[in-house]
């Protein structure tokens, strides 16, 4: 197997005495869709922060597209959690998308103003946002804003796309649209996707492998290998039942080990 675009070896992350995970080895190939799952506080968002160069590992090392993680890596795209923007914000949708091209420097970068405008228009069209891209983003719906964030993340043609709960707070229709946009990019351009989520069902048909983090431990494998009663029971150290109904995965466990929201993977992660 060729070297991955994301390579993590012997990695560990801890905050004080609390170990989020240790001994993590992970190799993500071009075009692979990896779902990162686990309960609130298990270190999912922290993993993305490591790959973005915003958080240092406590042990081991990581490389992204052949380089140590660092800010401003143009081969890495990032889609944050959907959060409502201030209604008074006058930034237009096209401005938001353009920040993904040259938001870290003055001027129009290497493309020039004309090419920059054309590139932004191409990405706006690719996510179906033409009708509202000239509007102030603060006045757009959450789903419309998130489409523009996808365009912003893809405008630099990244080789790795890091997605931090991009479906949170979206209705089912917009969840499907955003998921399809991300999957289309990885299929057409071979972009590797690391998709942090509490709910695997909206993306289950796209997922190649799962990284499940919990209690300082982890498992890596296909959805069938990880999302089953035996594996999750071992991770949570209590009996967890996993059922497949109508092509979806449903998880239920003892309340002492899992709260209701964690079982169904809907709680936003707060660990940095």
From TrEMBL:
PROSITE patterns: ABC_TRANSPORTER_1 (PS00211), ABC_TRANSPORTER_2 (PS50893). Keywords: ATP-binding, Nucleotide-binding, Transport. Residues 6-240 form the ABC transporter domain. SUPFAM superfamilies: P-loop containing nucleoside triphosphate hydrolases. InterPro entries: AAA+_ATPase, ABC_transporter-like_ATP-bd, ABC_transporter-like_CS, Metal_Ion_Import_ABC, P-loop_NTPase. GO terms for molecular function: ATP binding. It holds the Pfam family ABC_tran. Belongs to the ABC transporter superfamily. This is Metal ABC transporter ATP-binding protein.
């Amino acid at each position: 197997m060729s070297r991955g675009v994301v390579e993590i070896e012997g990695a560990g992350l801890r905050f004080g005495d609390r170990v989020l995970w240790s001994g993590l080895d992970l190799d993500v190939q071009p075009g692979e869709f990896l779902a990162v799952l686990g309960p609130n506080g298990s270190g999912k968002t922290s993993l993305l922060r490591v790959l973005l160069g915003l958080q240092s590992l406590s042990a081991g090392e990581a490389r992204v597209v052949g380089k140590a993680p660092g800010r401003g890596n143009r081969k890495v795209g990032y889609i944050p959690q959907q959060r409502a923007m201030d209604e008074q914000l006058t930034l237009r949708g096209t401005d938001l998308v353009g920040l993904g091209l040259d938001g870290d420097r003055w001027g129009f970068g290497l493309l020039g103003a004309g090419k920059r405008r054309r590139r932004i228009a191409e990405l706006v069209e690719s996510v179906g946002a033409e009708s509202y891209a000239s509007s102030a983003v603060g006045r757009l719906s959450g789903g419309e804003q998130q489409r523009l964030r996808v365009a912003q993340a893809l405008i630099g043609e990244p080789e790795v796309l890091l997605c931090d709960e991009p479906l949170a707070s979206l209705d089912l229709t917009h969840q499907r649209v955003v998921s399809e946009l991300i999957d289309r990019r990885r299929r057409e351009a071979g972009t590797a996707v690391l998709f942090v989520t509490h709910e695997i069902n909206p993306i289950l048909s796209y997922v190649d492998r799962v990284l499940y983090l919990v209690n300082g431990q982890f498992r890596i494998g296909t959805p069938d290998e990880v999302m089953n009663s035996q594996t999750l029971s071992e991770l949570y150290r209590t009996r967890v039942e996993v059922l497949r109904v109508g092509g979806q995965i449903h998880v239920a466990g003892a309340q002492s080990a899992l709260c209701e929201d964690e079982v169904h993977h809907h709680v936003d992660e707060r660990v940095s």
